[in-house]
Design brief:
- By secondary structure, the protein is mainly alpha-helical.
- Among the domains are: 148 residues, Serine Threonine Protein Phosphatase 5, Tetratricopeptide repeat (Alpha Horseshoe), CATH 1.25.40.10; 38 residues; 102 residues; 128 residues, Histidine kinase-like ATPase, C-terminal domain (Heat Shock Protein 90, 2-Layer Sandwich).
- The chain is 76% helix and 5% strand.
- It contains 29 helices and five strands.
- It has a five-stranded mixed β-sheet with strand order 1-2-3-5-4.
- β2 and β3 form a beta hairpin.
Length: 674
């Protein structure tokens, strides 16, 4: 596979390539402008030189490198910093992205630094530092890359060009993505896409969505990656040029390969190849796409189809064996050799490809290469080497390089110690068997005695353990009940303080405001008073003493019914005289917490609440038609709210049952003695 960074940045780098080298009129225009340059001087001469640089932009046929360098020198002589800087950043772009000479591009950038200092054009300065940052990032100097990106960002902000700021943020986001700082990558890419959406720049929106999809893939969020990518594909299909469609399909194929979906891997590679046929980047993207399609077909027993495409590569090996497609070319050769059954060639190319990936520290690529080597060795009957590469494959799959080595060492050490221990046990068993033959009776009694002691000790340990667990459970229940009671006591105290102290003070303030005709102040005081009373009622439902338990529950449900968009079905029998004050409060709190849980989490349309009394038992029944949940017992043991509900029922010496299924709602049934 081609490195992600190259795949991600290549389309950005080629967006400005618009010159058609076969255009016959271009030669005439170039000749005409050169004649104008020879006949003019100073400002007019510089204007024609700049025009020639723009006309033959990135075109080697007309010696672009030499022409643009002469333009830069002459512009500096005439102190035309705008033209000099613009042509410099174009030259950096050309060196790095068109001909792939990043070192030369960086040298151009370094040599020009300082000359742009008095330039007023912030747009041009932004691009200069942005392209300079690209060079540093590509060469692995991450700190210098980010430093130049930040300078570019500052100039972009000054330029007040949103699209330019989005370009910088997009590059910064990609750099964070490459360095593994996914949080910052996500934040910066979101900034970029917001800018592009505001500016309605569809092309850059698609680029950023592609970057986000890669970010999600890097973190194994494949569904989220698929969603971002599909949105980008739909946007791209609506565009006339569709320059990014092949890249989006290519990256989709890479994800499907990672999750083992071979059918979609091949299907998306075919779509990428089809999109490449009409792409302006056919020459740049065609080789990696074709290589990857062959790899996919060969790896999935489609040799006939793979050979059809492989003939294209065989007819022009120089195009595929050079530059950034070299690694893919070798991978294609190894996959085809394996598919054809030429295992020696597959082994040769496999070793070469693995060494290339090891030099890049590309863990996913190394993992796939190790897996391939394991398959080849297995086909050759070399199970030892096959096993060794398979171990490396799984090790890399589970962790990063340093942790992998520790795990591998631990594994082999454990294997050695286990074999050593098993051998020792077998030796001891042989000795025991020999002694048993010599003195059976004695050993039998010894064994029975040991077994008896072990059983006795185990029984004593079991009894003590159960006793300890029982005491621990009782202490835990006592502590939980004490905490709940302390909570209720504190709620009651605060409620009383609010009612007796703060409430009375607010009432006096309200009356004084009314006496002095301060209506606005009176209304504010009245609002505050109502809020205090509401808080006081929530902390301790005074209606329990005033109305009784049944009416208080009905009042609670009536108030909640008015507050939420949910249909309540309520059937409450009279149980006012069945429980003492403490139990009444606990039962009321249980109903309150059960109903609140349903409102908050169930996403239900209806809620049924009934309280009934029969044969000395009070039964509370709460049922909703919401989303439900699986593994109710597990949730009950881990949810603080459900734990509190269970503890309240335990304090009432009752039983609690919770039944729920995904999509079928939840039913809570509590039974307590009257």
């Amino acid at each position: 596979m081609i490195p992600m960074k190259q795949l991600l940045l290549i389309p950005i780098f080629f967006l400005s390539v618009i010159i058609n080298a076969q255009d016959m009129d271009l030669q005439i225009k170039v000749t005409t402008i050169k004649s104008k340059i020879e006949q003019s001087e100073k400002g007019e001469r510089l204007m024609w030189m700049d025009s020639l640089s723009l006309l033959i932009e990135f075109n080697d046929h007309f010696n672009y490198d030499s022409v643009v360098r002469h333009t830069i020198r002459y512009a500096l002589e005439l102190d035309s910093l705008d033209i000099a800087t613009r042509n410099t950043h174009d030259l950096i772009y050309y060196k790095k992205n068109i001909i792939g000479k990043v070192d030369d591009a960086l040298e151009v950038f370094k040599n020009y630094l300082g000359k742009e200092e008095h330039l007023a054009n912030n747009v041009t300065k932004t691009r200069l530092y942005m392209y300079g940052g690209d060079c540093y990032i590509d060469l692995g100097d991450i700190d210098a890359g980010f430093e130049n990106y930040e300078i570019a960002k500052a100039f972009a902000i000054k330029s007040e060009k949103e699209s330019l700021l989005g370009d910088v943020n997009l590059r910064i986001g990609i750099a964070y993505l490459e360095t593994g700082d996914f949080a910052k990558a996500s934040e910066t890419l979101q900034e970029a896409i917001t800018t592009f959406i505001h500016g309605k720049d569809t092309s850059k929106i698609i680029h950023t969505k592609n970057s986000l999809s890669i970010l999600y893939s890097q973190n194994a969020f494949y569904k989220e990656a698929e969603q971002e990518r599909n949105e980008a594909i739909e946007l791209e299909k609506k565009r006339q040029e569709q320059t990014l469609l092949e890249l989006l399909y290519f990256n989709a194929a890479a994800d499907y390969r990672m999750i083992g979906d071979n059918k979609n891997w091949i299907a998306n590679m075919r779509l990428a190849l089809k999109a490449n046929e009409t792409s302006r980047y056919k020459l740049q993207f065609g080789p990696p796409i074709l290589c990857n399609l062959i790899i996919a077909l060969a790896a999935n027993d489609s040799l006939v189809q793979a050979e059809h495409y492989f003939k294209i590569i065989e007819s022009d090996p120089e195009t595929y064996a050079q530059g950034y497609t070299h690694d893919l070319y070798i991978e294609t050769l190894k996959q085809m050799s394996l598919a054809k059954g030429d295992y020696q060639k597959a082994l040769q190319y496999g070793k070469q490809h693995l060494n290339l990936k090891l030099a890049e520290d590309s863990f996913v690529e190394i993992m796939n290469a190790e897996n391939f080597m394991s398959k080849v060795y297995k086909a050759l009957g070399d199970n030892e080497n096959s096993y060794e590469h398979k171990i490396r494959y799984y090790t890399i799959k589970d962790s990063v390089s340093s942790v992998q080595k520790v795990k591998a060492l631990t594994y082999y050490q454990t294997l050695y110690e286990t074999e050593k221990r098993d051998l020792k046990i077998k030796t001891q068993e042989s000795d025991i068997a020999l002694l048993a033959e010599q003195d059976k009776l004695k050993n039998h009694w010894m064994i029975f005695g040991v077994i008896g002691l072990v059983v006795l000790f185990g029984f004593i340990l079991l009894v003590r353990s159960r006793s300890h667990l029982k005491k621990q459970k009782q202490l835990q229940e006592k502590l939980s009940q004490g905490l709940i009671q302390a909570q209720e006591d504190e709620r009651t105290r605060i409620s009383r303080e609010l009612h007796d102290s703060v409430g009375q003070q607010l009432t006096l303030i309200k009356k004084k405001a009314q006496n002095e005709d301060q209506n606005e102040f009176s209304e504010l005081t009245n609002t505050a008073l109502e809020e205090v009373r509401s808080i006081s009622r929530a902390l301790y439902p005074s209606s329990l003493k005033q109305l009784g338990l049944s009416e208080s529950i009905e009042q609670l449900l009536h108030e909640l019914d008015e507050q939420v968009d949910m249909f309540f079905s309520v059937d409450i029998e009279n149980i006012n005289d069945e429980l003492d004050e403490e139990k009444t409060l606990n039962f009321y709190r249980f109903i309150q917490e059960s109903v609140n849980n349903a409102i908050k989490h169930a996403k239900a349309k209806t809620l049924e609440v009934s309280v009934s009394k029969a044969k000395g038992t009070i039964e509370a029944f709460i049922r909703d038609n919401g989303c439900g949940f699986e593994n109710a017992n597990h949730l009950r043991s881990n949810s603080l709210g459900l734990k509190t509900m269970a503890e309240r029922i335990r304090m009432l010496r009752g039983t609690l049952s919770i039944r729920s299924m995904k999509g079928e709602g939840t039913t809570v049934i509590a039974k307590i003695p009257a």
